[in-house]
Amino acid sequence: MSGPTGAPISVLIVDDDALVRSALTLMLGGQRDIHVVGEAGDGAEGLRKAASLRPDVVLMDIRMPVMNGLEATRALHRDSDPPAVIVLTTFDADEHVVGAVAAGADGFLLKDTPPTEIVSAIRLVAGGEAMLSPSATRSLLRQVRAGAPDDRATEAGSRIDLLTLREREVAVCVGRGLSNAEIAAELYLSVPTVKAHVSRLFDKLDVTNRVQIAMVVHDAGLV
Q1: 192 is in which domain, residue-wise?
Q2: Residue-wise burial string across 181-220, b where 16 or more C-beta atoms lie within 10 A, e elsewhere
Q3: Is the per-residue pLDDT at 106 higher than 70?
Q4: Are β-strands 57-61 and 84-89 bridged in parallel, bridged antiparallel, or unpaired?
């Protein structure tokens, strides 16, 4: 996996803990297809660095001074060509997980996630997919189901009704956390066909990323 032009995936690290930034930079420095282009200590600085460096992926802490990670993620997604954002947090039950997804985050990982999984997540979101750690997924679903479940289920069901049978099958696979390649293998489709279906899901479900597709599928009770 590489960036859009075939160059290494460029990564900006935004975290108020200098030790975390250093550890991530050191860890990612060993990957030939990933290049850390900059660091920032808060969301506001992260936005400035993102505007000048144009990274493919931003690793974004949630709790930071000046501007938190949710505000920064929302601001990034106002850009016509935003970077993919992976939100990092120390807490698997962080109350901001739903807000991070709603803000447009493409991935959600705990800071104690094994390095190989963080690297894998960066490659996935750079390729247009989504990544949630298992514990973060459980946290997300707990909080989604705790808030106005009837209203949310009704709305999700109405969105799902707009889909064709095949689109619904693809949506369920996305809700299970499968990659495009895994969906293709399970449904006996080509990867380009899966990508086309996922693109239509964005439009029909009125979402901006795969994590939000998964939320709709879970709200509708399909997974």
Answers
A1: 149-219
A2: eebbeebebeeebbbebbebbeebbebebbbbbbbbbbbb
A3: yes
A4: parallel
- How much is the pLDDT for 153? 78
pLDDT, tens digit, for every residue of 48-60?
A: 999 999 999 999 9
In this prediction the pTM is: 0.71
Domain count of the fold of the chain: 2
Element (H, E) at 88: strand 84-89
Instruction: Measure the CA–CA gap between 43 and 77, rounded to whole angstroms.
Output: 13
- Length in residues, the chain: 223
For residue 68, which phi and psi values (nearest 5 degrees)?
-80, 175
Residues 23 and 68 both lie in one domain: yes
Q: Quick check: 183 pLDDT over 80?
A: yes
